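Check the record.
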Amino acid sequence: MASKQQVIALAREHGFTQDPDPGFICFRRTHQDGRQQMLRVVWWSNKKFAATLGIPNAYIVVCPGIDQDHHEDGRFRLPLVEWPSSEQLRRSPHEVLEEFRNVFITALDAPSDQAHETFQGLGGRYRL
C-alpha cells in the first residue's frame, strides 16, 4: 500500500507544495502555463461497507483541481487493493504510485482542456 509520505514525495517531485487543509492532504502548484492547480488526497478503507457496495475496500480519494476555475474537477478513487477481485489483496506501493503518476499527475501536467477531458473520461475503476 502506498503511504502518505510516498504520495507527498511524488507530489513534490512534480512541483506541488503541501498546503494545510482539514481532513485532506492538500497540494498546490503553478503549472508551466501559469494555471494555479490543487490536488487533495485522503485514504479511505472499510471492508464491510465496501463488500456491501462491491467497491474496493481501501483506496486513495483523489480530488484534482486543474486550474483556478476548476477547484475540484471530480472526485476519484485509486484502489490500494487488487480490484475488481473478491480477495482484494493489497497492491505494492510501487504499483499504486505508478498508477497515481500515470493517471492523475499526467492529466494535471497536460493542457487545461486535455486535463479536463481526461478527468471527465475516467471510468468505473476511478469514478466515485
User: Anything to note?
Assistant: The helical segments are 4-13, 47-53, 93-109, 112-121. The first strand starts at residue 17 and ends at 19.
